[in-house]
Amino acid sequence: MLNPSPERADGTRFNTPYGNTLGPVIAQGASFNYWPRAYEPAMQHRWRLGFQRELRRDMVIEASYNGSWSAIPVTQRISYLPQQYWATGSVRNNDVDNSMNANITNPFNLKLTAPGLATSD
After folding, report:
1. pLDDT > 90: what percent of the chain?
2. How far is CA 93 from CA 21, 87, 88, 101, in A?
3. pLDDT tens digits, residue range 43-102?
4. Which of 21, 75, 88, 90 is the most exposed place for a label (fewest CB within 10 A)?
5. What CA dihedral angle connects 28, 33, 37 and 42, to 10 degrees?
6. Is pTM, for the whole model, over 0.70?
7. Given a cut of 80, is residue 105 above it in pLDDT?
8. Euclidean distance between CA atoms 87 and 96, whole angstroms
9. How buried is residue 96: exposed, middle or buried, by Cβ count under 10 Å (0-12/13-18/19+)?
10. Element at 67 (helix H, strand E)
11. Residue 2 pLDDT
């Protein structure tokens, strides 16, 4: 507790940040992210107007108005669900419902057949 950052054998105390020294391999091993080039985040404005009035030493009255305004740009879907499974329109699509609710075999359900060997169902 007396020295939370002890000095190392090489005389330094902290790791030097990489910054941009790694160049294009900075994202090596990271997961894939997709953001459209024209991505605009949602915008929201919030406001509150209010007043308080003390009527007596032990009584206060307050009135306030809270409001908000939002603009959420929805120009394209940012979804990992392929277009063939989208249920668009105002009519129920039973084909899409059946395919999305169908059971699949569990890929993690392993059955041991011999010592040290595992196979899936």
Report:
1. 20
2. 52, 7, 8, 13
3. 889 999 999 999 999 999 999 999 998 887 766 666 677 777 777 778 888 888 888 888
4. 90
5. -130
6. no
7. yes
8. 7
9. middle
10. strand 59-71
11. 80
Alpha-carbon span 80 to 82, nearest angstrom: 6
C-alpha dist (Å) from residue 22 to 3, 25, 32, 46, 67 = 32, 6, 18, 41, 47
Tell me the domain boundaries of the chain. Answer: 38-73
> How confident is residue 36, by pLDDT bands cut at 50, 70 and 90?
low
Residue 100 CA to residue 82 CA, distance in Å, equals: 12
Torsion region of 66: left, alpha or beta (phi above 0 gives left; psi -120 to 50 gives alpha): beta
CA-to-CA dists, residue 105 to 45, 81, 100, 109, angstroms: 47, 20, 14, 8
Q: How many CB atoms lie within 10 A of CB 93?
A: 14
* DSSP three-state, residue 34: coil
Q: Which two tokens mark 115?
A: 């010592």
Structure tokens at 62: 């307050």
Q: How far apart are CA 22 and CA 28, in angstroms?
A: 10
